[in-house]
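Below is a filled-in request sheet from our internal design queue. Each sheet records the structural input a requester submitted and the sequence that came back. We keep these sheets so that new team members can see what a complete request looks like end to end.

REQUESTER: design group, bay 2
PRIORITY: normal
MODE: inverse folding
CHAIN LENGTH: 303
BACKBONE (tokenized):
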């Protein structure tokens, strides 16, 4: 499994202000203009859900003005299409003009809403859950937020938003529609899936049926910073560090340093950071496999 599918313990600070909001999670979903990571977000929706009280306390949903073409395959799925710079939705036989916002406005509102941040308070730490979001929504939300929101807000987003993927957390098989149907979703409700807010409601029904606990979510969520580093840091893109090691060593160790220093130096660095012998051994094995691949590549190049 990929690094973000493994259980990664989130260490909560002693200061109560620094803790993840107790029992409150965000269930979110995106609709996009295509499958590429760089494609536009066309809709972002979310529910603020209190697990202990089993109730939705708030909702968020905004459409975004597209900056590029919308793929035909994407339109077939969610019904959204662009015409003369405006966003429309196919609604039966009618093309409905949507009240869409520029990406910077919509995503700034969304991140502030998630974090309960008004510019003067300490942003909350919050767990954001989705269906298959570790493979799709998380990276696209980060990429588009990096382009559209302020650097300070983007930094807060990475540090204070945490991700948990219900598809892996609950070991679900098949699509959201399939799991929603198995949990009692009506035919009418299923027909409205691939509308982001309805997808959030469908996932909530699945979570309620399966009995997801807040404690279990805290046990396997990862920070959006880790998701971002996975895209940017060679130590993660090349799968050289385990999740537990990455949590402690990102920012303290470069790819160039890790690939060149001796096994003894690696052990000393990792042991000083409180990393277990089993994790150190695993990383050293990964490094050796990577070095072997580099040697073979260099050999082919020379020949």
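RETURNED SEQUENCE:
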């Amino acid at each position: 499994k990929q690094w973000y599918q493994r259980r990664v313990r989130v260490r909560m600070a002693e200061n109560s202000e620094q803790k993840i909001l107790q029992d409150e999670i965000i269930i979110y979903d995106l609709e996009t203009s295509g499958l590429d990571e760089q494609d536009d977000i066309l809709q972002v929706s979310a529910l603020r859900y209190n697990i202990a009280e089993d109730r939705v306390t708030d909702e968020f949903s905004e459409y975004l003005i597209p900056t590029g073409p919308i793929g035909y395959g994407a339109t077939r799925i969610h019904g959204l299409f662009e015409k003369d710079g405006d966003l429309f939705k196919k609604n039966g036989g009618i093309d409905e003009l949507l009240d869409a916002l520029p990406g910077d406005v919509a995503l700034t509102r969304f991140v502030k809403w998630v974090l309960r941040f008004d510019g003067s308070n300490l942003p909350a730490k919050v767990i954001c859950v989705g269906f298959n979001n570790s493979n799709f929504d998380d990276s696209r939300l980060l990429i588009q937020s990096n382009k559209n929101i302020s650097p300070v807000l983007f930094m807060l987003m990475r540090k204070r938003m945490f991700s948990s993927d219900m598809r892996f957390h609950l070991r679900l098989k098949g699509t959201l529609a399939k799991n929603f149907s198995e949990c009692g979703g009506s035919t009418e409700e299923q027909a409205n899936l691939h509308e982001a807010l309805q997808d959030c409601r469908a996932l909530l029904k699945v979570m309620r049926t399966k009995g997801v606990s807040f404690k279990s979510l805290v046990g396997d969520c990862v920070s959006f910073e880790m998701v971002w580093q996975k895209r940017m840091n060679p130590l993660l893109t090349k799968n050289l560090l385990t999740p537990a090691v990455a949590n402690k060593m990102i920012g303290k160790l470069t790819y160039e340093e890790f690939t060149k220093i001796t096994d003894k130096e690696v052990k000393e660095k990792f042991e000083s950071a409180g990393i277990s012998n089993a994790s150190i051994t695993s990383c050293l094995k990964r490094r050796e496999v990577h070095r072997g691949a580099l040697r073979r590549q260099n050999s082919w190049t020379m020949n």
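SHEET NOTES:
- The chain has 15 helices and ten strands.
- The first helix runs from residue 72 to 78.
FILED BY: M.R.
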